[in-house]
Amino acid sequence: MKTILYTLIAALLCTGCESRFISVDAKQFAEAIKNPQMQIVDARTPQEFRDGHIPRAVNMDINSKDFINQIASLDKTRPVAVYCRSGRRSKIAAEKLVSNGFDVTELDGGIITWEGEIIK
């Protein structure tokens, strides 16, 4: 019983320690990227990016070995919006962005939920 109690206390204390990103639906994401200061990151592969991406997005493949070096080119004083195909990779990318000091909004459900403009 004490172990469970200590585990719960530790979990509650750590909850406030971590920076988190916010995950939003496509409509909220569309509103967020209207901000001209928002940097938009497409975390998919280069081929997926070429097949169609959200306007103003830059491709930074979460699976590339130099993802951390790529995000270093972003401005930490400006917010970042990140997406992928279905939301799995963008959540990983968002965690890495947050741990590197960025304020992040993530498209929950990915580009497959997107109803806005796509550039091919």
Descriptive terms for the model:
five-stranded parallel beta sheet; alpha/beta; single chain; Oxidized Rhodanese, domain 1; disordered N terminus
Helix and strand topology:
Elements: H1 2-15, E1 22-24, H2 26-32, E2 39-42, H3 46-51, E3 57-59, H4 67-71, E4 80-83, H5 88-99, E5 104-107
Parallel strand pairs: 1-5, 2-3, 2-4, 4-5
Structure overview:
By secondary structure, this protein is α/β, with parallel strands linked by helices. It has a single domain, classed as Oxidized Rhodanese, domain 1 (3-Layer(aba) Sandwich), CATH 3.40.250. Helices cover about 35% and strands about 15% of the residues. The chain has a 5-stranded parallel beta sheet with strand order 1-5-4-2-3. The longest helix is centred in the N-terminal third of the chain and has 14 residues, at about 1-15. It starts with a helix and ends in a 13-residue tail after the last strand. The model is unreliable at about 1-15 (pLDDT under 50).
Short description:
The protein is an alpha/beta fold and 120 residues long. It is built from five helices and five strands; from the N terminus they run H-E-H-E-H-E-H-E-H-E.
